[in-house]
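for the recovery benchmark. tokens below, seq after
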């Protein structure tokens, strides 16, 4: 039985365990993250395995500060560009990052992207702690996910 779901998808209620989940992205709300100018639409999340797929919208100048990709991360840029110290991924292009890679990323002109994670990113805090994009303690919320054992 799957533990995956699409939060805020009203058309999924009452579906059988093996039914396809069609996601009407235009009716999903943009969710605020703790980073100014960064919003997300959660398309799929599985809190048991850590699998996460989001539409990510970043305003011009928005920054995702120092973070680690705990497992492989994949991003397809739909509009704008995603910039990090290793290069720029522009609209229509794709970047993936190996497990354990660490960096900051920004969108000087803004951007819209589809991001897929085997486990959510781990953001490093000044006090030495680690959180996810929503500010939840990463170890408390995600450390037990089974993808961590891959």
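predicted aa per position
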């Amino acid at each position: 039985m799957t533990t995956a779901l699409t939060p805020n998808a009203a058309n999924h209620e009452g579906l059988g365990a093996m039914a396809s989940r069609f996601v009407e992205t235009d009716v999903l709300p943009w969710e605020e993250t703790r980073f100014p100018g960064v919003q997300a639409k959660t398309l799929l999340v599985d809190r048991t395995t850590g699998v996460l797929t989001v539409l990510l919208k970043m305003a011009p100048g928005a920054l995702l500060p120092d973070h680690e990709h705990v497992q492989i991360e994949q991003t397809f840029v739909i509009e704008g560009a995603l910039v990090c110290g290793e290069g720029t991924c522009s609209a229509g292009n794709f970047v993936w990052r190996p497990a354990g890679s660490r960096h900051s990323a920004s969108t000087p002109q803004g951007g819209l992207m589809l991001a897929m994670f085997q486990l959510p990113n781990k953001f490093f805090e000044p006090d030495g702690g680690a959180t996810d994009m929503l500010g939840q303690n990463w170890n408390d919320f995600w450390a037990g996910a089974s993808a961590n054992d891959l």
